[in-house]
């Protein structure tokens, strides 16, 4: 009888673990849109910062971007 009781306890623990895992996955799934929004806001801020830097410190003639090689050759300080 004790073996049956121990087995029943193990099934209850397993069920609780499965429920907790399911809840964690569900919570993570609900967080994805928020995380994507924050990522986009951070990227927009970084892009804006670079734009402001180049507008203040560089003229268009100082920047030669090679589209073919994806490099910024001859970037003058």
TrEMBL record:
Q: Which domain of life is it from?
A: Eukaryota
What is the protein named?
A: Uncharacterized protein
Q: Which organism is it from?
A: Caenorhabditis brenneri (Nematode worm)
- What does the record give as the organism's lineage? Eukaryota, Metazoa, Ecdysozoa, Nematoda, Chromadorea
């Amino acid at each position: 009888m004790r073996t049956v009781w121990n087995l029943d306890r193990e099934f209850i623990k397993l069920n609780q673990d499965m429920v907790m895992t399911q809840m964690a996955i569900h919570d993570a799934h609900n967080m994805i849109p928020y995380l994507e929004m924050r990522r986009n806001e951070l990227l927009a801020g970084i892009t804006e910062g670079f734009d402001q830097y180049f507008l203040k410190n560089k003229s268009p003639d100082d920047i030669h971007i090679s589209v073919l090689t994806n490099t910024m050759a001859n970037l003058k300080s």
